Amino acid sequence: MKESDLKAIRKWRRRGFYSENKLVKLLHENGYKAVRVPVSNPSLNPLPDIIARRESDVYAIEVKNAGYYAYFPKQQVIKLFEFLDQMVPIPEDHKHAVIVAHFGKRWIFREIHWQDWRDNKLPNQERIIKRDRGNFDLETGKKK
Q1: pTM for this one?
Q2: Which of 56, 61, 6, 52 is nearest to 30 (CA)?
Q3: Could you confirm whether domain 3-143 is CATH 3.40.50.300?
Q4: Which of 1, 109, 113, 116 is most exposed by smallest CB count within 10 Å?
Q5: Where exactly are the structural domains of the chain?
Q6: Helical residues (DSSP H) of 30-135, grouped into ranges
Q7: CA–CA separation, 53 vs 61, rounded Å?
C-alpha cells in the first residue's frame, strides 16, 4: 500500500474518532450516560460506535462524519439491532437503534424501526443528506 493511501486512511479514521467523541460529549450535555466503543471497527461483532442510556432507554448508535451525505451500509444497521437484541435484556420499546450523521456543526439523528429489522425490510444502505431533518429528538430521546 502506498504511503499516500495510508495517510488518507489515517485521516478518515481520525474524522470518525473525532465525531464519535464529540457526540459522546453532546449526549452527556443532554442528560445521557454514553461511552464510545473503541473496538466498533468493521468487524463481525455486533458492536455500535456508541452505547448510551437515558433513564430506562438504551441507544445503540452508529456515527458518520460527512460532507454532504452519509451512507450507512445495511450490515452496520443490522449490527445495532443484533447488539440491542442479544445484549440488552429490556423491552424493545426501550431499545433504540440510531444512526447519526455529523456535518460540521450540524447533527442529524435517525432512529431505525424495529419492525423493518424483524421483517428483513432494511434497505441495502441508509442515507442521510445534509438537508434532511431526521426523526429523532436528542432532547427527549424519542422519535419525532
Answers
A1: 0.86
A2: 52
A3: no
A4: 1
A5: 3-143
A6: 74-87, 114-118
A7: 11
